[in-house]
Specification:
There is one protein chain. The chain has about 250 residues and is mostly helical. The protein has 3 domains: about 100 residues, Four Helix Bundle (Hemerythrin (Met), subunit A) (Up-down Bundle), CATH 1.20.120; about 45 residues, Orthogonal Bundle (Arc Repressor Mutant, subunit A), CATH 1.10.10.10; about 55 residues, Arc Repressor Mutant, subunit A (Orthogonal Bundle), CATH 1.10.10.10. It contains 13 helices and 2 strands, in the order ααααααααββααααα. Strands 1-2 form a two-stranded antiparallel sheet. The longest helix is centred in the middle third of the chain and has 21 residues.
């Protein structure tokens, strides 16, 4: 479904040149409300273009646009000139991340009954083998006891793991709660952000298959199942290649 800017009644503001963008960013971060508002308005087209990627997800684009705008505002507040990159380079993953976080939190992953049953059997077998062997059993031992492949065991256990949220409460007394995000330093946050930005620079060092899967997963926003159908592999194989590629990516960084 294609939606035009005019249909969403968005104001039309000119694109900013880099010098003007940087000047407004400095003013906005020093408390200039008008500069901040102009930055937001002049970057709404960027938010709109990114929101189009998430069409046909069961949500109104107007709602996702509002979520994306929150990501834009966070980018304005957190951007540091010392990053030596364009503001849009920094803002894009912030906006996309905000939308994906909303979709994840609002629509938890549904786990099939067969995976839940397998996970239950795996955990029960692991407990029994631990008592019998006097140690934690290996995947091979669990696989032999259950007659399940190692891939099936890994998939089942991963499927039932509860996702963590950076907004999860770590501690709370009579005062304000402490969230996971409070324990993340700015340095760690910026490092993770720029790992995403630098992804294109190290893609050429991955194998052709790793590169193909990473591009489809993180640049084309395809699910592992969709990628598996395209490349002719199983979802488990795609998941394994993706994990290997990300490990190599971090090492290269």
């Amino acid at each position: 479904m294609s939606v035009r800017l005019s249909e969403m009644n968005l104001p039309r503001f000119p694109l900013l040149k880099d010098t003007e963008m940087n000047s407004l960013l400095l003013k906005a971060q020093q408390g200039d409300v008008q500069a901040r508002e102009r930055l937001i308005n002049c970057n709404l087209r960027l938010v709109f273009n990114l929101v189009q990627r998430f069409a046909n997800r069961g949500y109104e684009l107007e709602d996702l646009f509002q979520i994306g705008t929150i990501g834009l505002i966070k980018a304005i507040d957190k951007f540091d000139m010392s990053y030596n990159v364009k503001f849009s380079t920094y803002a894009v993953p912030m906006i996309i991340g905000e939308i994906r976080r909303f979709l994840r939190d609002d629509n938890p992953v549904k786990v099939s009954r067969s995976l839940k049953e397998n996970a239950y059997k795996i955990n029960k077998t692991r407990d029994n083998l631990t008592k019998e062997l006097g140690r934690e059993p290996t995947l091979q031992e669990i696989s032999k006891a259950l007659g399940l492949s190692i891939d099936d065991i890994i998939t089942s256990l991963e499927a039932v793991q509860s996702p963590s949220s950076i907004h999860e409460t770590l501690y709370q007394d009579d005062g304000d709660p402490i969230y996971v995000i409070d324990q993340l330093s700015d340095e760690e946050y910026n490092e993770k952000m720029f790992e995403k930005i630098a992804l294109k620079e190290v893609l050429k060092k991955l194998t052709p298959k790793e590169r193909e899967i990473i591009i489809m997963r993180f640049f084309e926003d395809k699910t592992q199942t969709e990628v598996a159908n395209i490349v002719g592999l199983s979802q488990v194989q795609v998941s394994r290649i993706e994990r290997q590629a990300l490990k190599r990516f971090k090492k290269l960084l």
